[in-house]
Amino acid sequence: MNELAVLSKAMIQERKDILLSILGGFIAGIAGVALFSASGYLVSQTVFSPPLYTLIVLTSMVKLLGLLRAASRYGERLYSHRATFSMLSRLRTSFFAKLIPLTPGILNRNRSGDLLARIVGDVESLQNYFLRVAYPPIMVVMVFLATVLFISAFSFWIALLFVIGMLATAFVVPGIVLLGQRRIHGRVREQRAQLSTEVTEVLYGFRDLKVYGQLAQREQQLQQASATLAAEQQRAAGHLLRGQSMHALVTFLISWGVLALGAYLIMSGALAGVFLAMLVMASLTVFEEAAAMATLPAYKEDSEHAAKRLTETVQPTDVQSLRPGGALSLDQAVSLELSGVTFQYEGEWRPALKDVSLHISPGSKTAIVGPSGSGKSTIIELLLKLRTPTAGDIRLNDVSVMELEEKSIWEAANVVLQQSHFFRGTIRANLLLDEEEHSDEQLLDVLAKVQLPDKSLTDMVYEKGENLSDGEKQRLALARAMLRQGRLWLLDEPTSSLDYVTEQHIMKHLYAQTAQDTLILISHRLTGLEEMDRIVVMDQGKVVETGSYSELMEQKGYFYEMKKIERQMIGEAAV
Known about the structure:
- By secondary structure, the protein is of the alpha/beta class.
- It has helices at 5-13, 15-47, 52-99, 105-109, 112-125, 127-152, 156-181, 187-204, 206-211, 215-267, 276-286, 296-313, 376-383, 406-412, 427-431, 440-449, 470-482, 500-513, 549-555, 558-574, and strands at residues 336-343, 353-360, 365-369, 391-396, 399-400, 413-416, 425-426, 460-461, 488-492, 518-523, 534-539, 542-547.
- Keywords: ATP-binding, Cell membrane, Membrane, Nucleotide-binding, Transmembrane, Transmembrane helix, Transport.
Protein backbone atom coordinates (compact mmCIF):
# COMPACT_ATOMS: atom_id res chain seq x y z
CA MET A 1 0.00 0.00 0.00
CA ASN A 2 1.22 3.49 -0.82
CA GLU A 3 2.18 5.07 2.49
CA LEU A 4 1.45 8.56 1.14
CA ALA A 5 -2.05 7.63 -0.05
CA VAL A 6 -3.66 9.36 2.91
CA LEU A 7 -1.67 12.50 2.07
CA SER A 8 -2.79 12.38 -1.53
CA LYS A 9 -6.38 12.00 -0.35
CA ALA A 10 -5.98 15.02 1.92
CA MET A 11 -4.58 17.02 -1.03
CA ILE A 12 -7.62 16.13 -3.12
CA GLN A 13 -9.87 17.36 -0.32
CA GLU A 14 -8.02 20.70 -0.37
CA ARG A 15 -7.96 20.92 -4.16
CA LYS A 16 -9.53 24.39 -4.28
CA ASP A 17 -6.78 26.04 -2.24
CA ILE A 18 -4.15 23.97 -4.04
CA LEU A 19 -5.37 25.08 -7.47
CA LEU A 20 -5.48 28.70 -6.32
CA SER A 21 -1.93 28.44 -4.95
CA ILE A 22 -0.73 26.90 -8.24
CA LEU A 23 -2.39 29.71 -10.19
CA GLY A 24 -0.86 32.32 -7.90
CA GLY A 25 2.58 30.69 -8.15
CA PHE A 26 2.42 30.52 -11.93
CA ILE A 27 1.42 34.17 -12.23
CA ALA A 28 4.14 35.17 -9.76
CA GLY A 29 6.76 33.15 -11.65
CA ILE A 30 5.81 34.51 -15.06
CA ALA A 31 5.50 38.04 -13.66
CA GLY A 32 8.99 37.73 -12.19
CA VAL A 33 10.49 36.60 -15.49
CA ALA A 34 8.64 39.35 -17.33
CA LEU A 35 9.67 41.94 -14.73
CA PHE A 36 13.39 41.28 -14.99
CA SER A 37 13.22 40.79 -18.75
CA ALA A 38 11.49 44.16 -19.11
CA SER A 39 14.08 45.72 -16.81
CA GLY A 40 16.91 44.35 -18.97
CA TYR A 41 15.17 45.52 -22.12
CA LEU A 42 14.62 48.97 -20.55
CA VAL A 43 18.32 49.27 -19.70
CA SER A 44 19.26 48.31 -23.26
CA GLN A 45 16.79 50.76 -24.80
CA THR A 46 18.16 53.70 -22.84
CA VAL A 47 21.46 53.32 -24.70
CA PHE A 48 19.72 54.15 -27.99
CA SER A 49 17.94 57.26 -26.63
CA PRO A 50 14.39 56.09 -27.43
CA PRO A 51 11.35 58.41 -27.42
CA LEU A 52 10.10 59.46 -23.99
CA TYR A 53 6.80 57.57 -24.35
CA THR A 54 8.77 54.32 -24.87
CA LEU A 55 10.57 54.79 -21.56
CA ILE A 56 7.30 55.73 -19.85
CA VAL A 57 5.60 52.57 -21.14
CA LEU A 58 8.51 50.33 -20.15
CA THR A 59 8.84 51.95 -16.72
CA SER A 60 5.11 51.61 -16.08
CA MET A 61 5.23 47.99 -17.19
CA VAL A 62 8.05 47.27 -14.76
CA LYS A 63 6.08 48.82 -11.89
CA LEU A 64 2.88 46.96 -12.78
CA LEU A 65 4.74 43.67 -13.10
CA GLY A 66 6.34 44.27 -9.71
CA LEU A 67 2.95 44.85 -8.10
CA LEU A 68 1.48 41.82 -9.88
CA ARG A 69 4.34 39.62 -8.76
CA ALA A 70 4.04 40.73 -5.14
CA ALA A 71 0.25 40.27 -5.06
CA SER A 72 0.27 36.87 -6.74
CA ARG A 73 3.15 35.67 -4.55
CA TYR A 74 1.16 36.69 -1.48
CA GLY A 75 -1.86 34.78 -2.79
CA GLU A 76 0.30 31.74 -3.51
CA ARG A 77 1.71 31.76 0.03
CA LEU A 78 -1.72 32.29 1.56
CA TYR A 79 -3.50 29.47 -0.24
CA SER A 80 -0.61 27.00 -0.21
CA HIS A 81 -0.05 27.36 3.52
CA ARG A 82 -3.76 27.28 4.26
CA ALA A 83 -4.03 24.06 2.27
CA THR A 84 -1.00 22.65 4.10
CA PHE A 85 -2.35 23.42 7.57
CA SER A 86 -5.78 22.04 6.64
CA MET A 87 -4.13 18.84 5.39
CA LEU A 88 -2.14 18.55 8.62
CA SER A 89 -5.36 18.93 10.58
CA ARG A 90 -6.98 16.15 8.56
CA LEU A 91 -3.91 13.94 8.99
CA ARG A 92 -3.85 14.40 12.75
CA THR A 93 -7.56 13.65 13.00
CA SER A 94 -7.23 10.58 10.80
CA PHE A 95 -4.15 9.36 12.65
CA PHE A 96 -5.69 9.71 16.11
CA ALA A 97 -8.93 8.08 14.91
CA LYS A 98 -6.88 5.02 13.92
CA LEU A 99 -4.60 5.21 16.95
CA ILE A 100 -7.17 5.26 19.76
CA PRO A 101 -8.79 1.86 19.09
CA LEU A 102 -5.34 0.23 19.03
CA THR A 103 -4.54 1.07 22.65
CA PRO A 104 -3.25 -0.38 24.88
CA GLY A 105 -1.56 -2.83 22.50
CA ILE A 106 0.28 -0.02 20.73
CA LEU A 107 1.87 1.06 24.02
CA ASN A 108 3.29 -2.43 24.38
CA ARG A 109 4.90 -2.27 20.93
CA ASN A 110 6.28 1.29 21.12
CA ARG A 111 8.12 3.11 23.85
CA SER A 112 6.18 6.18 24.96
CA GLY A 113 8.89 8.62 23.87
CA ASP A 114 9.10 7.09 20.41
CA LEU A 115 5.31 7.17 20.11
CA LEU A 116 5.34 10.84 21.10
CA ALA A 117 7.96 11.56 18.44
CA ARG A 118 5.77 9.88 15.82
CA ILE A 119 2.61 11.68 16.89
CA VAL A 120 4.25 15.10 16.91
CA GLY A 121 7.38 15.06 14.76
CA ASP A 122 6.39 12.67 11.98
CA VAL A 123 2.98 14.25 11.43
CA GLU A 124 4.62 17.67 11.41
CA SER A 125 7.16 16.50 8.81
CA LEU A 126 4.38 15.75 6.36
CA GLN A 127 3.69 19.47 5.98
CA ASN A 128 6.67 19.55 3.61
CA TYR A 129 5.12 17.05 1.22
CA PHE A 130 2.95 19.53 -0.67
CA LEU A 131 5.14 22.64 -0.31
CA ARG A 132 8.51 20.95 -0.94
CA VAL A 133 7.70 17.82 -2.95
CA ALA A 134 4.46 18.04 -4.93
CA TYR A 135 4.36 21.77 -5.62
CA PRO A 136 7.85 22.64 -7.01
CA PRO A 137 7.78 20.31 -10.08
CA ILE A 138 4.44 21.79 -11.16
CA MET A 139 5.83 25.31 -10.97
CA VAL A 140 9.04 24.38 -12.77
CA VAL A 141 7.20 22.77 -15.68
CA MET A 142 4.65 25.58 -16.08
CA VAL A 143 7.00 28.55 -15.70
CA PHE A 144 9.85 26.99 -17.72
CA LEU A 145 7.61 26.00 -20.61
CA ALA A 146 6.10 29.49 -20.79
CA THR A 147 9.57 31.06 -20.60
CA VAL A 148 11.07 28.76 -23.24
CA LEU A 149 8.21 29.52 -25.61
CA PHE A 150 8.84 33.24 -25.07
CA ILE A 151 12.62 32.91 -25.55
CA SER A 152 12.24 30.77 -28.68
CA ALA A 153 10.62 33.77 -30.40
CA PHE A 154 14.01 35.51 -30.20
CA SER A 155 16.48 32.61 -30.49
CA PHE A 156 16.05 28.87 -30.87
CA TRP A 157 19.57 28.16 -29.61
CA ILE A 158 19.18 30.19 -26.44
CA ALA A 159 15.82 28.50 -25.85
CA LEU A 160 17.61 25.15 -26.24
CA LEU A 161 20.18 26.27 -23.67
CA PHE A 162 17.30 27.08 -21.31
CA VAL A 163 15.93 23.56 -21.81
CA ILE A 164 19.34 22.05 -21.01
CA GLY A 165 19.50 24.15 -17.85
CA MET A 166 15.98 23.09 -16.90
CA LEU A 167 16.87 19.41 -17.29
CA ALA A 168 20.03 19.90 -15.24
CA THR A 169 18.25 21.65 -12.36
CA ALA A 170 15.15 19.42 -12.47
CA PHE A 171 16.86 16.02 -12.81
CA VAL A 172 20.66 16.05 -12.59
CA VAL A 173 21.08 18.12 -9.42
CA PRO A 174 18.19 16.37 -7.55
CA GLY A 175 19.58 13.01 -8.67
CA ILE A 176 22.99 13.80 -7.18
CA VAL A 177 21.32 14.99 -3.97
CA LEU A 178 19.22 11.82 -3.85
CA LEU A 179 22.28 9.58 -4.08
CA GLY A 180 23.77 11.22 -1.02
CA GLN A 181 20.47 11.44 0.77
CA ARG A 182 19.94 7.69 0.68
CA ARG A 183 23.07 7.22 2.77
CA ILE A 184 21.60 9.22 5.64
CA HIS A 185 17.98 8.15 5.05
CA GLY A 186 15.92 8.45 8.23
CA ARG A 187 18.86 8.91 10.59
CA VAL A 188 17.82 12.35 11.81
CA ARG A 189 14.27 11.19 12.51
CA GLU A 190 15.43 8.02 14.24
CA GLN A 191 17.87 9.95 16.40
CA ARG A 192 15.17 12.49 17.25
CA ALA A 193 12.86 9.65 18.29
CA GLN A 194 15.68 8.14 20.35
CA LEU A 195 16.31 11.44 22.13
CA SER A 196 12.59 11.89 22.78
CA THR A 197 12.42 8.39 24.23
CA GLU A 198 15.40 8.97 26.52
CA VAL A 199 14.04 12.32 27.74
CA THR A 200 10.62 10.84 28.47
CA GLU A 201 12.04 7.93 30.44
CA VAL A 202 14.35 10.19 32.46
CA LEU A 203 11.43 12.49 33.33
CA TYR A 204 9.18 9.58 34.34
CA GLY A 205 11.90 7.75 36.26
CA PHE A 206 13.76 10.77 37.67
CA ARG A 207 13.04 9.94 41.31
CA ASP A 208 14.05 6.27 41.06
CA LEU A 209 17.16 7.11 39.04
CA LYS A 210 18.23 9.62 41.67
CA VAL A 211 17.57 7.24 44.57
CA TYR A 212 19.54 4.42 42.94
CA GLY A 213 22.39 6.67 41.84
CA GLN A 214 21.83 6.18 38.11
CA LEU A 215 20.87 9.75 37.25
CA ALA A 216 24.37 10.81 36.17
CA GLN A 217 24.64 7.81 33.86
CA ARG A 218 21.27 8.54 32.22
CA GLU A 219 22.22 12.22 31.86
CA GLN A 220 25.35 11.12 30.02
CA GLN A 221 23.22 8.95 27.72
CA LEU A 222 20.96 11.94 27.07
CA GLN A 223 23.92 14.14 26.19
CA GLN A 224 25.27 11.47 23.88
CA ALA A 225 21.88 11.11 22.15
CA SER A 226 21.63 14.89 21.83
CA ALA A 227 25.14 15.14 20.36
CA THR A 228 24.39 12.34 17.89
CA LEU A 229 21.20 14.09 16.80
CA ALA A 230 23.04 17.40 16.37
CA ALA A 231 25.72 15.70 14.27
CA GLU A 232 23.14 14.02 12.02
CA GLN A 233 21.22 17.30 11.65
CA GLN A 234 24.46 19.05 10.70
CA ARG A 235 25.18 16.39 8.08
CA ALA A 236 21.68 16.67 6.67
CA ALA A 237 21.88 20.48 6.59
CA GLY A 238 25.27 20.32 4.87
CA HIS A 239 23.84 17.92 2.30
CA LEU A 240 20.97 20.30 1.54
CA LEU A 241 23.41 23.19 1.30
CA ARG A 242 25.49 21.29 -1.27
CA GLY A 243 22.37 20.74 -3.34
CA GLN A 244 21.52 24.43 -3.23
CA SER A 245 25.10 25.32 -4.12
CA MET A 246 25.02 23.00 -7.14
CA HIS A 247 21.78 24.62 -8.25
CA ALA A 248 23.32 28.09 -7.96
CA LEU A 249 26.34 26.89 -9.95
CA VAL A 250 24.14 25.56 -12.77
CA THR A 251 22.14 28.79 -12.76
CA PHE A 252 25.25 30.96 -13.20
CA LEU A 253 26.72 28.59 -15.81
CA ILE A 254 23.53 28.85 -17.88
CA SER A 255 23.48 32.64 -17.48
CA TRP A 256 27.10 32.87 -18.61
CA GLY A 257 26.23 30.51 -21.43
CA VAL A 258 23.33 32.77 -22.50
CA LEU A 259 25.65 35.78 -22.38
CA ALA A 260 28.34 34.07 -24.47
CA LEU A 261 25.91 32.50 -26.95
CA GLY A 262 23.99 35.75 -27.24
CA ALA A 263 27.17 37.67 -27.97
CA TYR A 264 28.06 35.14 -30.68
CA LEU A 265 24.57 35.38 -32.22
CA ILE A 266 24.74 39.18 -32.19
CA MET A 267 28.10 39.14 -33.99
CA SER A 268 26.69 36.73 -36.57
CA GLY A 269 23.60 38.92 -37.03
CA ALA A 270 21.17 36.25 -35.79
CA LEU A 271 20.08 38.30 -32.75
CA ALA A 272 19.49 41.99 -32.13
CA GLY A 273 21.82 43.35 -29.46
CA VAL A 274 19.00 45.14 -27.61
CA PHE A 275 17.60 41.77 -26.48
CA LEU A 276 20.76 40.39 -24.88
CA ALA A 277 20.29 41.98 -21.44
CA MET A 278 16.66 40.85 -21.47
CA LEU A 279 17.63 37.21 -22.15
CA VAL A 280 20.35 37.22 -19.47
CA MET A 281 17.95 38.68 -16.89
CA ALA A 282 15.31 36.08 -17.85
CA SER A 283 17.81 33.26 -17.31
CA LEU A 284 18.73 34.58 -13.86
CA THR A 285 15.07 34.83 -12.85
CA VAL A 286 13.51 31.67 -14.25
CA PHE A 287 15.93 29.40 -12.42
CA GLU A 288 14.73 30.81 -9.09
CA GLU A 289 11.59 28.73 -9.59
CA ALA A 290 13.72 25.59 -9.84
CA ALA A 291 15.67 26.27 -6.63
CA ALA A 292 13.31 24.05 -4.63
CA MET A 293 14.12 21.10 -6.90
CA ALA A 294 17.60 20.86 -5.36
CA THR A 295 16.14 19.98 -1.93
CA LEU A 296 13.12 18.04 -3.21
CA PRO A 297 14.72 14.56 -2.78
CA ALA A 298 15.59 15.27 0.85
CA TYR A 299 12.07 16.36 1.71
CA LYS A 300 10.61 13.50 -0.31
CA GLU A 301 12.68 10.94 1.58
CA ASP A 302 11.80 12.61 4.88
CA SER A 303 8.06 12.63 4.09
CA GLU A 304 8.05 9.01 2.94
CA HIS A 305 9.98 7.93 6.03
CA ALA A 306 7.56 9.82 8.31
CA ALA A 307 4.55 8.35 6.49
CA LYS A 308 6.03 4.86 6.82
CA ARG A 309 6.55 5.25 10.57
CA LEU A 310 3.00 6.53 11.02
CA THR A 311 1.63 3.64 8.95
CA GLU A 312 3.58 1.16 11.07
CA THR A 313 2.25 2.79 14.23
CA VAL A 314 -1.43 2.34 13.37
CA GLN A 315 -1.02 -1.06 11.73
CA PRO A 316 -3.46 -3.30 13.63
CA THR A 317 -1.95 -6.37 15.27
CA ASP A 318 -4.24 -7.83 17.88
CA VAL A 319 -7.22 -5.69 16.85
CA GLN A 320 -9.31 -7.03 14.01
CA SER A 321 -11.59 -5.10 11.70
CA LEU A 322 -12.64 -1.93 13.49
CA ARG A 323 -15.84 -1.54 11.56
CA PRO A 324 -18.73 0.47 13.04
CA GLY A 325 -21.24 -1.59 14.97
CA GLY A 326 -24.35 -1.34 17.07
CA ALA A 327 -24.80 0.22 20.48
CA LEU A 328 -25.03 -1.45 23.89
CA SER A 329 -28.14 -0.49 25.82
CA LEU A 330 -27.65 1.53 29.00
CA ASP A 331 -31.15 0.76 30.31
CA GLN A 332 -30.52 -2.77 31.54
CA ALA A 333 -27.90 -4.77 33.37
CA VAL A 334 -25.46 -6.50 31.05
CA SER A 335 -25.08 -10.25 30.58
CA LEU A 336 -21.70 -11.62 29.51
CA GLU A 337 -20.83 -14.77 27.62
CA LEU A 338 -17.28 -15.96 26.91
CA SER A 339 -17.20 -18.99 24.62
CA GLY A 340 -13.89 -20.79 24.15
CA VAL A 341 -11.92 -17.53 24.40
CA THR A 342 -8.19 -17.76 23.80
CA PHE A 343 -5.84 -14.79 23.72
CA GLN A 344 -2.10 -14.64 23.15
CA TYR A 345 0.01 -11.51 23.31
CA GLU A 346 2.26 -10.76 20.36
CA GLY A 347 5.67 -12.37 20.86
CA GLU A 348 4.57 -14.48 23.85
CA TRP A 349 5.15 -18.23 23.72
CA ARG A 350 2.04 -19.19 25.71
CA PRO A 351 -1.53 -17.81 25.67
CA ALA A 352 -2.64 -15.41 28.41
CA LEU A 353 -6.08 -17.04 28.19
CA LYS A 354 -6.76 -20.55 26.95
CA ASP A 355 -10.24 -21.82 26.05
CA VAL A 356 -12.06 -19.75 28.70
CA SER A 357 -15.84 -20.14 28.81
CA LEU A 358 -17.99 -18.16 31.25
CA HIS A 359 -21.59 -17.07 31.55
CA ILE A 360 -22.37 -14.11 33.80
CA SER A 361 -26.04 -13.32 34.33
CA PRO A 362 -27.31 -9.73 34.26
CA GLY A 363 -27.38 -8.12 37.69
CA SER A 364 -25.03 -10.71 39.24
CA LYS A 365 -21.87 -10.12 41.26
CA THR A 366 -18.84 -12.12 40.11
CA ALA A 367 -15.34 -12.18 41.57
CA ILE A 368 -12.39 -13.43 39.50
CA VAL A 369 -9.45 -14.52 41.64
CA GLY A 370 -6.15 -16.23 41.05
CA PRO A 371 -2.40 -15.66 41.19
CA SER A 372 -0.65 -12.92 39.22
CA GLY A 373 -0.36 -13.70 35.53
CA SER A 374 -3.40 -15.97 35.48
CA GLY A 375 -5.19 -13.81 32.88
CA LYS A 376 -7.69 -11.95 35.07
CA SER A 377 -6.96 -8.42 33.80
CA THR A 378 -6.86 -9.66 30.19
CA ILE A 379 -10.53 -10.62 30.47
CA ILE A 380 -11.44 -7.00 31.28
CA GLU A 381 -9.42 -5.72 28.31
CA LEU A 382 -11.24 -8.16 26.04
CA LEU A 383 -14.63 -7.13 27.43
CA LEU A 384 -13.80 -3.47 26.77
CA LYS A 385 -12.72 -4.33 23.21
CA LEU A 386 -9.26 -2.99 23.92
CA ARG A 387 -7.97 -6.30 22.60
CA THR A 388 -9.44 -8.93 20.32
CA PRO A 389 -9.52 -12.64 21.18
CA THR A 390 -7.20 -14.89 19.23
CA ALA A 391 -10.03 -17.43 19.18
CA GLY A 392 -13.52 -17.71 20.58
CA ASP A 393 -16.35 -15.22 20.98
CA ILE A 394 -17.41 -12.65 23.59
CA ARG A 395 -21.03 -11.54 23.77
CA LEU A 396 -22.62 -8.72 25.73
CA ASN A 397 -26.40 -9.02 26.01
CA ASP A 398 -26.21 -11.80 23.39
CA VAL A 399 -24.42 -9.49 20.90
CA SER A 400 -20.84 -10.17 19.85
CA VAL A 401 -18.43 -7.42 20.90
CA MET A 402 -17.18 -7.34 17.30
CA GLU A 403 -20.63 -6.09 16.30
CA LEU A 404 -20.64 -3.35 18.93
CA GLU A 405 -19.05 0.08 18.77
CA GLU A 406 -16.24 0.56 21.26
CA LYS A 407 -17.82 3.80 22.46
CA SER A 408 -21.09 2.14 23.41
CA ILE A 409 -19.24 -0.50 25.45
CA TRP A 410 -17.20 2.13 27.25
CA GLU A 411 -20.31 4.20 27.99
CA ALA A 412 -22.04 1.16 29.52
CA ALA A 413 -19.05 0.22 31.69
CA ASN A 414 -17.85 1.76 34.94
CA VAL A 415 -14.20 0.79 34.96
CA VAL A 416 -11.46 0.95 37.59
CA LEU A 417 -8.16 -0.46 36.35
CA GLN A 418 -5.07 -1.27 38.37
CA GLN A 419 -3.36 1.90 37.12
CA SER A 420 -5.75 4.83 36.78
CA HIS A 421 -4.53 8.00 35.15
CA PHE A 422 -4.99 11.41 36.70
CA PHE A 423 -4.55 14.71 34.90
CA ARG A 424 -3.02 17.86 36.26
CA GLY A 425 -5.92 19.92 37.57
CA THR A 426 -8.40 20.00 40.43
CA ILE A 427 -10.19 17.12 42.15
CA ARG A 428 -13.38 18.34 40.46
CA ALA A 429 -11.81 18.21 36.98
CA ASN A 430 -10.51 14.67 37.57
CA LEU A 431 -13.93 13.50 38.72
CA LEU A 432 -15.82 15.06 35.81
CA LEU A 433 -14.12 13.32 32.89
CA ASP A 434 -17.33 12.39 31.04
CA GLU A 435 -20.10 14.58 29.67
CA GLU A 436 -22.48 13.95 32.58
CA GLU A 437 -23.25 16.92 34.81
CA HIS A 438 -22.95 16.63 38.58
CA SER A 439 -23.44 19.21 41.29
CA ASP A 440 -20.81 19.97 43.92
CA GLU A 441 -23.05 18.28 46.49
CA GLN A 442 -23.00 15.04 44.48
CA LEU A 443 -19.23 15.22 44.12
CA LEU A 444 -18.69 15.82 47.83
CA ASP A 445 -21.11 13.00 48.66
CA VAL A 446 -19.22 10.47 46.53
CA LEU A 447 -15.91 11.64 48.05
CA ALA A 448 -17.36 10.90 51.47
CA LYS A 449 -18.45 7.43 50.33
CA VAL A 450 -14.90 6.58 49.28
CA GLN A 451 -13.48 7.92 52.54
CA LEU A 452 -12.04 11.16 51.16
CA PRO A 453 -14.09 13.70 53.14
CA ASP A 454 -11.03 15.86 53.81
CA LYS A 455 -10.47 16.51 50.10
CA SER A 456 -11.74 19.76 48.60
CA LEU A 457 -13.00 19.92 45.04
CA THR A 458 -10.49 22.69 44.39
CA ASP A 459 -7.49 20.73 45.68
CA MET A 460 -4.83 20.34 42.98
CA VAL A 461 -3.85 17.00 41.53
CA TYR A 462 -0.44 16.78 39.88
CA GLU A 463 0.14 14.98 36.61
CA LYS A 464 -0.29 11.20 37.07
CA GLY A 465 -1.46 11.94 40.63
CA GLU A 466 2.09 12.41 41.91
CA ASN A 467 0.86 14.20 45.05
CA LEU A 468 -1.59 11.40 45.92
CA SER A 469 -0.87 8.17 47.76
CA ASP A 470 -1.73 4.87 46.10
CA GLY A 471 -4.73 4.52 48.39
CA GLU A 472 -5.98 8.02 47.52
CA LYS A 473 -5.59 7.26 43.82
CA GLN A 474 -7.70 4.12 44.15
CA ARG A 475 -10.40 5.89 46.13
CA LEU A 476 -10.50 8.78 43.66
CA ALA A 477 -10.76 6.29 40.77
CA LEU A 478 -13.65 4.54 42.54
CA ALA A 479 -15.36 7.89 43.09
CA ARG A 480 -15.00 8.65 39.39
CA ALA A 481 -16.61 5.31 38.51
CA MET A 482 -19.45 5.77 41.03
CA LEU A 483 -20.47 9.01 39.30
CA ARG A 484 -21.18 7.21 36.03
CA GLN A 485 -24.49 5.73 34.96
CA GLY A 486 -23.26 2.50 33.36
CA ARG A 487 -24.84 -0.85 34.25
CA LEU A 488 -21.63 -2.90 33.92
CA TRP A 489 -18.93 -2.60 36.59
CA LEU A 490 -15.41 -3.84 35.82
CA LEU A 491 -13.15 -3.42 38.84
CA ASP A 492 -9.53 -4.59 38.67
CA GLU A 493 -7.92 -4.64 42.13
CA PRO A 494 -9.80 -1.44 43.13
CA THR A 495 -8.90 -1.62 46.86
CA SER A 496 -5.52 -3.38 46.88
CA SER A 497 -3.82 -0.39 48.57
CA LEU A 498 -6.51 0.18 51.21
CA ASP A 499 -6.69 -1.10 54.75
CA TYR A 500 -9.39 -3.60 55.65
CA VAL A 501 -11.70 -1.15 57.49
CA THR A 502 -11.61 1.45 54.69
CA GLU A 503 -12.12 -1.26 52.09
CA GLN A 504 -15.20 -2.65 53.82
CA HIS A 505 -16.72 0.80 54.23
CA ILE A 506 -16.26 1.63 50.52
CA MET A 507 -17.43 -1.77 49.30
CA LYS A 508 -20.60 -1.41 51.38
CA HIS A 509 -21.55 1.73 49.45
CA LEU A 510 -20.44 0.14 46.18
CA TYR A 511 -22.59 -2.96 46.67
CA ALA A 512 -25.58 -0.76 47.49
CA GLN A 513 -25.13 1.24 44.29
CA THR A 514 -24.63 -1.85 42.11
CA ALA A 515 -27.52 -3.84 43.55
CA GLN A 516 -29.25 -4.09 40.15
CA ASP A 517 -26.11 -3.94 38.00
CA THR A 518 -23.63 -6.50 36.72
CA LEU A 519 -20.37 -6.38 38.65
CA ILE A 520 -17.08 -8.15 37.94
CA LEU A 521 -14.44 -7.78 40.63
CA ILE A 522 -10.85 -8.90 40.11
CA SER A 523 -9.00 -9.36 43.36
CA HIS A 524 -6.00 -11.01 44.93
CA ARG A 525 -7.58 -10.67 48.34
CA LEU A 526 -10.07 -13.37 49.27
CA THR A 527 -11.65 -11.51 52.18
CA GLY A 528 -15.10 -10.06 51.68
CA LEU A 529 -15.97 -12.38 48.79
CA GLU A 530 -18.89 -13.82 50.72
CA GLU A 531 -21.00 -11.07 49.14
CA MET A 532 -20.31 -12.39 45.64
CA ASP A 533 -22.91 -14.48 43.81
CA ARG A 534 -20.15 -16.36 42.08
CA ILE A 535 -16.38 -16.74 42.31
CA VAL A 536 -14.28 -17.71 39.30
CA VAL A 537 -10.83 -19.12 40.11
CA MET A 538 -8.18 -18.87 37.40
CA ASP A 539 -4.68 -20.24 37.03
CA GLN A 540 -2.30 -20.04 34.03
CA GLY A 541 -5.01 -18.63 31.76
CA LYS A 542 -7.61 -21.30 32.56
CA VAL A 543 -10.72 -21.44 34.72
CA VAL A 544 -10.05 -24.07 37.37
CA GLU A 545 -13.04 -23.57 39.68
CA THR A 546 -16.35 -21.72 39.83
CA GLY A 547 -19.05 -21.45 42.48
CA SER A 548 -20.23 -19.43 45.45
CA TYR A 549 -17.98 -18.78 48.44
CA SER A 550 -19.57 -21.51 50.53
CA GLU A 551 -19.54 -24.02 47.67
CA LEU A 552 -15.85 -23.51 46.97
CA MET A 553 -14.95 -23.77 50.64
CA GLU A 554 -16.91 -27.02 50.91
CA GLN A 555 -15.15 -28.47 47.84
CA LYS A 556 -11.76 -27.87 49.51
CA GLY A 557 -10.13 -27.39 46.14
CA TYR A 558 -7.93 -24.62 44.69
CA PHE A 559 -9.85 -21.74 46.27
CA TYR A 560 -9.87 -23.46 49.66
CA GLU A 561 -6.10 -23.83 49.56
CA MET A 562 -5.68 -20.17 48.55
CA LYS A 563 -7.90 -19.08 51.42
CA LYS A 564 -5.98 -21.30 53.82
CA ILE A 565 -2.66 -19.75 52.78
CA GLU A 566 -4.12 -16.25 53.14
CA ARG A 567 -5.32 -16.95 56.67
CA GLN A 568 -1.88 -18.27 57.59
CA MET A 569 -0.22 -15.14 56.18
CA ILE A 570 -2.62 -12.89 58.08
CA GLY A 571 -2.01 -14.84 61.27
CA GLU A 572 1.76 -14.59 60.90
CA ALA A 573 1.51 -10.87 60.18
CA ALA A 574 -0.61 -10.38 63.30
CA VAL A 575 2.00 -12.17 65.40
